[in-house]
Each structure stands twice: as structure tokens, then as C-alpha cells.
Amino acid sequence: MPRFRVLVALALAGVTALFAPAAPALLKYGALPRTPDAPITLLLAGTTPNYVASATAAPEDYTGLTDTIVLAQFRPAEREVRLLNIPRDTWTNIPGWGYGKINGANPHGGPDLLVRAVQQVTGVGVDGYALLSLRALRDLTDAAGGVPVTVEKPMRYDDNAAKLHINLMPGEHRLNGAQAEGFLRFRHDGLGDIGRVRRQQAFLGALSARLRSPLNVWRLPAVAGALDRNVRTNVAREQVAGMLGVLLTRPNVSTTLLPGAFGPGGTWTPDRAGIRALVQERFRAPNARTATVVLRNVAAPNGTARRTKARLDGLGYADVRIENVERAAQPATLIRGPSVAAQAVARDLGFGQVQADDVDAVTVTLGADAQ
């Protein structure tokens, strides 16, 4: 009996040690997996650190440029996770700021503005975001036990200010965290950001395959802990439960590059027609955003209702109408309708006060805050 008790105590200690790294994440996001009713779209963005005068990274505040931007759509019906890589140099009209590279949206207005910019470029509605610090890449790779990749060309680069030193030779490698950071941040191969995006796609595919292997199940608590230590997110427990439900099916993971072409100064010019076709085929959520939306402009600048309709149409809303009304003083936009649908409209627009009501349509009364 004493020996049995010792064995039980050792087993419990081992289980506790195994799951300890994931404890903070489980306390915040812990939820029972479930199969979501519709696809869940998460915006993943890696932020660059801000450096102080001593050339050391300041404490992470997630306000830096976003070097990596990926839309991840969890699709339960197809048992797939579809990834859309958006080059950081994508040239677009950032709401409220004008034209610039999309990676500047986060420093200008935080993750909410980044979400709006991505939605505007892609026409895909975003359910939540997760900003990852630069340290996340290292910790996640090490927690996964390294990630196997193929290096096609010599990769050498030194940046003392950013403490980035890359020295990888062609061939098969299992990258540790520091090597993975170099592999993914390298831009000096003649393709600039597009070359880096392709390496991101290869890396994400290899990491996904490694974590889906039954042999690496024991690594998942450490992976969860690595993510939790290095993330700022607005993802709700219900969304976590839905994403876990998809991941437990061991889904296929596919990656796609945002359609476009090289533009002036190394920018990436979006191919609007190509994006619409891609989204319609690969990222449109079935039966999503089917509520009728009525737009009434009472206090916003002229043309706001038309621009808002175009935005909602691009996000897949099936029935958006404009009603002419008399102008009046109204500082805030009011969104009235069924709770779930009204909340979805508010989330997709990025502004507006929701008033839940048992009515058929969602009515958006545009105030002076409409953008």
C-alpha cells in the first residue's frame, strides 16, 4: 500500500507539472469543446517590439507594426482551417488615416483599426483577434520541440539594434525558437515580404503537422502556456470552445496568399477582383450575415450610408438597404435589432451602440460617430 501511494503521488505530480504551463490559459479561456454552428474567423497578427535608446526592446505593449498578418478561418463542416496570409506591405486605405501599408494600422489605432483594415481589404468578417508578441514565436517553437523546415537558399543577416542574427544554410533543419525567428523575419532574398510570407506558410504547415501528431499530444499544455504568455486577444470563451471543437477533428490546414502584385516601393497592390473570387470560393461563411440591415443616415456626412452599405455588402451581408430620413442631431450610431445579429453588425462596423430588440431587421441609425 505505501508503494502504491507513492506511485499515485508521483503520477499526480507528473500530471500537475505537465499541465501547469497551461493553467493560466485554462483559467481565462477554459471551455468545453463544441462544434460551432458556422465558421469562426480569427485575425492573427505578430507585433514588432518598440526599441528604446539602448537598443533593447521595451516591455511589450502590442502597439508596434504587425509583421505577420493571417486570417484563420475554422470551418467545422469541412473539417478545415483555412489561412489567408496578408503581406505586411499591402497598400490600402486605412480607415480614418488614408492610404498606407496595412501593417501601420495597429500603431495608428490598435487591433480594432487593424481588424477594420483587414475586413476592408478582404471582405471577410472577423470574429476576434489575437496579437502575438515577437517572443511568442520563440516560445511556441521551443514548446513544440522545434519545427522541421527546408531552407532553400543561404540566409545570412545581422541586425544588432534588433538583436537579430540569421545564419541558416540550405537543407533540412529542425529550427529552435531563435532560428525560427530568423527564418520567418528574413527579407533579403529578392522577394522581400512575399518571400517571407511563403516561409510563414511553410512554417505554419510544419508546425500544424507537428502539433496534430499523436506523438506530440503531451506538448500541447506547454504550447498553450507559450501562447498565453505572449498574446493580447479579445477572443471569448464561446469562440475558444468552437475553435477547439474544430481542432479536435484534426482538420486539414491550407494556406493562401492575398491575391495581388508588387507595386511601387516594394508594396503589395491588392487584386480586388482576385480577392473577391477567392473569398467567395474559400472564405465565405455559409448562411452567415443573412439578416436584413436597414441604414438610415441622420447625422453622418453625406455618402456615409452608401459607403457603409458597400462595406457590409463586401462582408457578405445578403440584404442591406438604405432608407432616406430627415437629418437630426445624433452623436452616436444606434444599432437596433435581434441581439446576435445587431452585435454582429456592430462588430463588423467597428462602432455603434447596440439596442437589442425583438424585431425582424437590424436598423442602423448613423450618427456623427459613423466612419
Describe it for me?
Pfam families: LytR_C, LytR_cpsA_psr. The protein has 371 residues and is an alpha/beta fold. It folds into two domains: 19-283, Aminopeptidase, CATH 3.40.630; 292-366, Alpha-Beta Plaits. 37% of the residues lie in helices and 26% in strands. Strand 2 (66-75) and strand 3 (80-85) form a beta hairpin. The protein is globular and about 65 Å long.
Could you give a quick summary of the protein structure above?
Residues 66-211 form the Cell envelope-related transcriptional attenuator domain. The chain is α/β, with parallel strands linked by helices and 371 residues long. Helices cover 37% and strands 26% of the residues.
- Tell me how many strands there are: 19
Structural class: alpha/beta
Distance between the termini: 71 Å
Helix content: 25-40%
Shape: globular
Quaternary structure annotation: single chain
Strand content: 25-35%
Which CATH C-level class of the largest domain is it? Alpha Beta
Average residue-wise pLDDT: 82
Strand and helix order: HHEEEEEHEHEEEEHHHEHEEEHEHEEHEE
CATH superfamily of the largest domain: LCP protein
Largest sheet, in brief, is: 6 strands, mixed
What topology, given as strand order, has the largest sheet? Answer: 11-6-1-2-3-12
Low-confidence stretches: 4-20
In the CATH classification, which architecture of the largest domain applies?
A: 3-Layer(aba) Sandwich
- Rg: 23 Å
| Tally of alpha and pi helices | 11
Q: How many domains?
A: 2
What would the CATH topology of the largest domain be? Aminopeptidase
